[in-house]
Amino acid sequence: MGGLCAKATNVEKTNGAELESKDVVPGAGAKKDAKEVAGSTANISLKKKEEEAKSETAAAAPAAALATPDAGGAQKTPSSAAFKRDLFIASGQGQIDDHYKVKEAIGTGSYGTVSIAIDKKTGSKKACKTIQHSKVTDKEKLNQEIDIMRRLDHPSIARLFETFQDMRNIYLIMELCSGGELFDKVIDADDCHFTEKTAAIVMRQIIAGIVYMHAHHICHRDLKPENFLMMDDGDVADTPLKIIDFGLSADFSQTEWLKTKACTPYYVAPEVLSGKYKEGCDVWSAGVIMYVLLCGAPPFFGDTDAEVLTSVRKGHYEFDLPVWDVVSREAKDLVQRMLVLDPTKRYTAQDALNHKWIQHLAPQSKGALPFSANAFRNLKKFRQNHKLKKAALTIVAHNIDEAQISDLRKMFMAMDKDSDGTLTITEIKEGMANAKMKIPSNIDEILKDIDSDGSGEIDYSEFLAATMEQKAYVKEEVCWAAFRVFDIDGNGKITKDELAAVLSGEADGGSNVESMLGMDLTEIDEIIKEVDTDGDGEIDFEEFMTMIRSNAGGEKDKDGKMRRSTASGGRKTVTATDDDRHPLSPQPEKDLGVGVIL
Q: Does residue 586 fall inside a structural domain?
């Protein structure tokens, strides 16, 4: 599925758009308009695309969706006490109109539209990608796209929050990136603000996201400028960048070739055109993007798509524009190592991230924050929570606004030395040592308790869930999303069966919860009993909020029940009814003034 352009002034471009020579200069200067290059990037579907895509899906290693490879590529099997976090994204609870006010479309594409969606209960803004059933010719590939998005958890990848569908459409509720498209920001910046150093900062984020995807055996296959969005309107060097559009993404294994010949002409790797390739195609695409960022023109060009593809197949390019005279030798060296015609001799994403140009101009310590004592104190408290609260806080962390966790994001990225999107025990220990913190003797046990999915490492959302300040997660508007994940039938109550199903990742949770989580139904009963203050055998939203607001381990009364508090932070808790299951009123809308591209 091709990218959807969702900026109000930028609709999907058509094949065969020609490049124009203009004076717009990203970086130090160039003869071509980089935005025009980015705009001429409609996906070309070559022969037998759908048939080959289906064969790829069948050929991909089945373990790829469930197991997480480590940096060396070995698969890691979830432990017996793990839950699958990709199931913590609500799916199909009622109609989208029950939960969101979908405003007018701000962008269109071949498959549908993108709109801003306002949460009716909280007033928060999301992006809604609407896909028409009638336009989807390969539902298996669409399901694969959604499945991949559910599994991704990285600071540089746009988050999927929940999905809906009705007779006409499929709706993906996603993170709203209000800063617009990367190349728009580059072109808007003058020469003084978009420097080679800024380009290195941008490329670090791009490559780090690729490293994470490849470590998890996911190949994006459609990396191009419009698939990189800025979170806000801040300066390019200071604004988080997000990778979007996984419509062509696929799981891969080291023993199988990818075959689908779908491409975006300027950015496609030569081996993709032959129909036999692996994840290295993403590195080539990133190399093209880096080339364009530095000089404003593509390395491979032509007057038609066919001419562009012919140039790509030859793989010959030059640093012949005047702007390259002032670009560093190290930058050119990295481009040359990424744009290697032979994929076996091409840099890997990890190699590119470790290159001296990235390390020197965009060091990991840039803007980083040391691991704080408060964050570690929260981390130690988190391990004392029962599995329901751990799972709930992980969902809250996934749904919380980027601005509220910006410091924790910087801490995570500072400790993630290999930028693979996960923290090993060694990386956390090094982070503590760098912050002059005393490392407790039971640190291994502490971190094992935080590793909720049993991958052997701390994922991004796991880190956020464990280190967030309580004031960030006790807000009802962020907890409502977590409650809805557990309330599978949407009746305003969490039953024992629903809790077991979500925690185990199986519809028949009762028969699988012991093997998946290392706990039996008796333990589920105890969690329900502890949180269920009115004794009806189910958990309503007020009880859920009481659990979230309680200290680790719970605040219990003399009978062992968790106390039901009537206020927190000066706010009265109101019981949700079947007709109005959330106690909040919508908050006033804020005018972003900028569209999104998803």
A: no
